[in-house]
């Protein structure tokens, strides 16, 4: 929970989310840089007026150590603005926002640029450990005899590469991939394959409607690659998805009886998202008009084998602390890691035994109206660059409040390793939707 000084949400931007079909044209730092330049460029202060830059990222390139500092310097924030990187798996971007809010609330900063970035398409292909050991021995071999002897020790199996992304999406403690944990909770709450596929279709349909309606104009900034190509929209959108098409896809994580497929899971994606957070003093100093306030934050731990239920455990304490019901929240963003995972969260809130035994509530919390949930699609349709999604859902929740002229939203997501994160935000009174290209401040 944020205590101390109020924390204001001033502005934000994100890149299009690009499907990771092959190593993409942008590194994680490139993505964050291109998302940040127009955001800072439309502010009435110079970049070096920032007190700090905080960036979430799970897997930066080898030459992007402390990627926040790399991006901060490339953005022109100057030598005197400290920058640091955070990693909380899928919630790294949200952790960056929370860290910024904490520093502002407690007087350690007044103006902070925070967000997340990820280039999942550039996840490394790794040498096996036995091959690395062989390389070490080869480097120490000096004579021709030693080299020939060492060469004879090399086995073809050692040359088989390991896919870094697959290792990163597997929990080393419980030995399950994130998809397998989604299977577990889908079975636990009786979520059917058809329900999951229908949800996936709706995600794509909603993203298509939002794209066609220009609903991302206030937050989306185009990417430009080194070949002069422009990337202006999320390119994971599959228009015309049908139950028949999705039903043909085979289970990925639990064959042959599983329910989780590539069609009802989040897409592996590249992207970045930023938000500008400020204290009241910074608003006055720079003449900024806030779009909203960050009211409360909660982190929760859950059984890693059922990590997809993290949003339930993170959001419920926020509701209790603020005297809210599910219906009192005007808009919800639950990150779509998997369709079955989102549906299981909704089922958990409706399940009296779960609410009593797992959440300590006297009864079931109730039913979340899905007309208030992920109105413009989510991870299934636009993708889930793990370092960026936590910031994106907060940014977009604020945009929806402005567009719909509503007051409160909760953005929440599950986190690999068995955690959940949630943020409660409020639109500033009188602040409505931005026109395309219009600055928030």
Fraction of residues in β-strands? 15-25%
Shape: globular
Cα(first) to Cα(last) distance is: 26 Å
Share of residues in helices: 25-40%
| Largest sheet properties | 10 strands, mixed
Average pLDDT, all residues: 93
Structural class by secondary-structure content? alpha+beta
Strand tally, please? Answer: 16
Question: Which regions have little confidence, pLDDT < 50, spanning 5+ residues?
Answer: 433-441
Report the radius of gyration as a whole number of Å: 22 Å
Number of helices: 15
Please render the helix and strand layout as text:
Layout: E1 8-14, E2 18-19, H1 28-41, E3 52-56, H2 67-74, E4 83-86, H3 92-105, E5 111-119, E6 125-126, H4 129-140, H5 144-152, E7 162-163, H6 164-168, E8 170-171, E9 176-177, H7 178-188, H8 193-212, E10 223-224, E11 230-231, H9 243-247, E12 269-278, H10 280-286, E13 292-301, H11 310-321, E14 331-334, H12 339-350, H13 352-357, H14 379-382, H15 389-404, E15 408-415, E16 419-427
Parallel strand pairs: 3-4, 3-5, 14-15
Antiparallel strand pairs: 1-12, 1-13, 2-12, 5-12, 6-7, 8-9, 10-11, 13-16, 15-16
Helix pairs in contact: 1-2, 3-15, 7-12
Notes on the structure:
The structure is a single chain. With 441 residues, the protein is α+β, with helices and mostly antiparallel strands. It has a domain at 128-164. It contains 15 helices and 16 strands. The strands form 4 sheets. Strands 1, 2, 3, 4, 5, 12, 13, 14, 15 and 16 form a 10-stranded mixed sheet that branches. A two-stranded antiparallel ribbon has the order 6-7. The protein is globular, with a radius of gyration of 22 Å. The two termini are 26 Å apart. The model is unreliable at 433-441 (pLDDT under 50).
